[in-house]
Specification:
This protein is of the alpha/beta class. It is built from four helices and five strands, in the order E-H-E-H-E-H-E-E-H. It has one domain: Glutaredoxin.
Length: 109
């Protein structure tokens, strides 16, 4: 079963911006309660959407990742951005139920 991809500065471009599939990127931090609540939902979606959408995570608390977080205007977390063709096509800030995310992702495709 597919798992969310752990993003970093070295793989962000290849995994997200140059990806053939749409990519849902979860900008999160370990201390964030709602982020931890989203983790199992994103794991389930990674399995269910395998081959259609990639699910990825970027820890914004890591000092090496703060430039990427700033580039995408991350001010509150969790902030999930759906990328297609290297562009953000949808944005979801805060805790979201699985059914909501699934519907929004499918409608955006």
């Amino acid at each position: 079963m597919a798992k969310p991809i752990e993003l970093n500065n070295a793989n962000f471009s290849a995994e997200v911006l140059e990806a053939k599939l749409p990519v849902l990127v979860d900008f999160w931090a370990p201390w964030c309660g709602p982020c931890r609540m989203m983790a199992p939902i994103l794991e389930e979606l990674a399995g269910e959407l395998d081959g259609k959408v990639k699910i990825a995570k970027l820890n914004v608390d890591d000092p090496d990742h703060q430039a990427l977080a700033a580039r995408y205007g991350i001010q509150g977390i969790p902030d999930m951005k759906l990328f297609r063709g290297g562009e953000v096509i949808a944005d979801f800030v805060g805790m979201r139920p699985k059914a909501y995310l699934l519907r929004e992702i499918e409608e955006s495709l």
